[in-house]
Amino acid sequence: MTKSPLSRDQLAELITRRRRQILVHSVIYYRWNDNVIDDHTFDLWSKQLAELQEQYPDIAAECEWAEAFKDFDGSSGAFLPLHEPAVMTMAGRVLNAVRHIKKKGG
To answer: End-to-end alpha-carbon separation of the chain, Å?
Structure first.
């Protein structure tokens, strides 16, 4: 395995960030039939997360949402905990912010 240029803390932060992004955008897409990112971006994030979890399982196991993502292979976010209130809240904030920006012409 090639050593990452990122520290353990940076890897943990990246894994957590990707998990949150996948969760949020999966709620927006699968539950609310909307999107704020394109499929290509989602696929890139999903692939990167799956690779990080495979390369650094010990770090991934310590990060937020470890149980939900333990079998995540990057192919779909449809089977994640999209009903969780915290996830729904994060997704709602993102979707509302994007709609606000679009409304203002940004």
So the answer is: 43
